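Journal club side-thread
Mid-discussion, someone asked how the predicted structure for our own chain would compare to the paper's figures. Pasting it here so we can look after the session.
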Amino acid sequence: FHHYILFKSNILRKELAGSSLEKDAYITAEVPAGDSHQLVVPTLTGNLISWDWACSKHDVQFTAIFRPANGSDIVMISSIDRHMAEDGPSVGSFESPAAGDLIFEWDNRYSFLRSKQVVYRVSQVAMSDFEDASG
């Protein structure tokens, strides 16, 4: 599994360097000055959600939370105060314990002068599919 994450991270680095490898797999989002960009990913019990992203210049705050569909408490998955572009890609994964929404937010509310650009990819697989593929 660790090699899978490293592979995805290397693809993102190549994308940011201008490589055409899997270029369509990544989404570029503008995070306006003084605002944020949110992505909501619906998921089912047992699904594995993985992501990698990077800021093209400057820095941005990031959070990933899980909101269960049954109304249970929200779970903080990841929180990065200020991820600098020179820090390279941020990579993470989460196995959903229940149906719900995984909410990603890139926050630029602290910056009133500069918008930020992030490049990200989120993928989701049923863990049963992943286990079947690994033998």
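Post-session note: Helices lie at 2-16, 127-134.
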